[in-house]
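Q: Predict the assembly, please.
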Amino acid sequence: MLSIERATEGGVREHGGSSSSDERSDSSPLEQKEGGVREHGGSSSSDGPSFSSAKAENLKANDRSPHKKKRGFATRAIHSGHDKSDPHGALTSPIYMTSTFEFETAEQGGARFAGEEGGYIYTRLGNPTLNELEQNLAGLEGAEACLTVASGMGAISSVFWTFVSPGDEILVDETLYGCTFAFFRHGMEKFGISVRHVDMRNPENLIREISDKTRIVYFETPANPNMRIIDIRAISEIAHSKNAKVVVDNTYATPYLQNPIALGADIVVHSATKYLGGHGDLMAGVILSSAEDMEQIRYVGLKDMTGAVLSPMNAFLVTRGLKTLELRMERHCDNGEKIADLLEASTKVEKVFFPGLPSFAQYELAKAQMRRFGGMIAFELNGGHDAGLKFLNALELCKIAVSLGDAETLVEHPASMTHSTYEPEERMRFGITEGLVRISAGLENSDDILADIEQALIRA
Ligand code: 3LM
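A: Predicted assembly structure:
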């Protein structure tokens, strides 16, 4: 597991580089405990025939390793989870575009439904292409189990519909992705679940607000859009003292930069639409947790409540995206730092929100908890709202678009776009100002991004 001590070494500006990823522990998904069919039908601990063979092959490959050293992040992202049972030895696994699986006999079908025999049943319960991706992601996040779903919102809603009941209370941070905020405010509350916002930047606030009714504590770190950082370890300790589960949205950081489970979180969610997929060409979501929690999330949350099943085609694309995640994240981080430096030096800019700037209020916490600082930056221009819109319209290379983590640099205006779900008064209270501009640093050559931002600042 990535200890906080190890993470502490990671502030890029001081320690940078990717070599430390080689020392990350490999909580191999292949070590997951095997279970009954209800588990096999899904991916959390599948050991269907193909999986057993993949396990044997991977163990052999490990035996051949001359160094017996934990493998690095990129190596695992490229190799882990690969099912080697293909009859033709395909290096890239075929995509199992099938909704259902044939049983050899009626008794076999019954046995699989009863949880007495491994093997696939129906893609909403599990699919080999999704399983490969899930095994890989579980290892990268250091989780016992992983479930892939159709979108980030599908991940969040599948978790909540699994664990909350009327009368429960959930405590969420103030700054959340706009649709997550709407899910809590307009979704959960309609069903008798109390949702309260707590400024979790200060863990003392959680101590004051948490109660015996609190079922889940939820936050993003870094938070969308204003980059607030939450101390995962401190919040988890407080939540666990009241038996509440901690759910962290790790979309902004990715498992490459931060592993919340190692810091005490119970469940991690991702919008894989973003960095994990990495190319802006798919929608996908990810959930990571203990095998025990995942049993319920898969067979209650996903199977019966949301049905937010990931297409095998999109699972294949995310698996492909993971092969370059480390390379891409290093470049996103490099470009993010350069953009933040440029903005901070500009006389047109009032304030920059980027956790890698020493001037950022939570710089030390970000350094302790993240390996690098990511590629997301928010800033306010002196001219406020109008200057922000002028800046967007003056861009020539960077795209005006929501979403993040793509190859293209994307720029948007949270108050009128991603966070228009908040009431204006709430946005003000929660630090999402009208003039805030958000940048997702892409993978272009940094000089070209910086030149475009510079000319747009002049015209803003
Ligand atoms: C956006 N965000 O531009 P999907 N969690 C986080 C997110 O940022 C998002 C989700 C979950 C944006 C999408 S706005 C219409 C476009 C931290 C999405 C939801 O369901 O895969 O989109 O993930 O900030």
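Residues 325-459 form a domain with the Aspartate Aminotransferase, domain 1 fold (CATH 3.90.1150.10). Residues 151-153, 177, 179-180, 220, 224, 249, 251, 271, 273, 283, 285, 402-404, 418 surround 3LM (CB under 6 Å).
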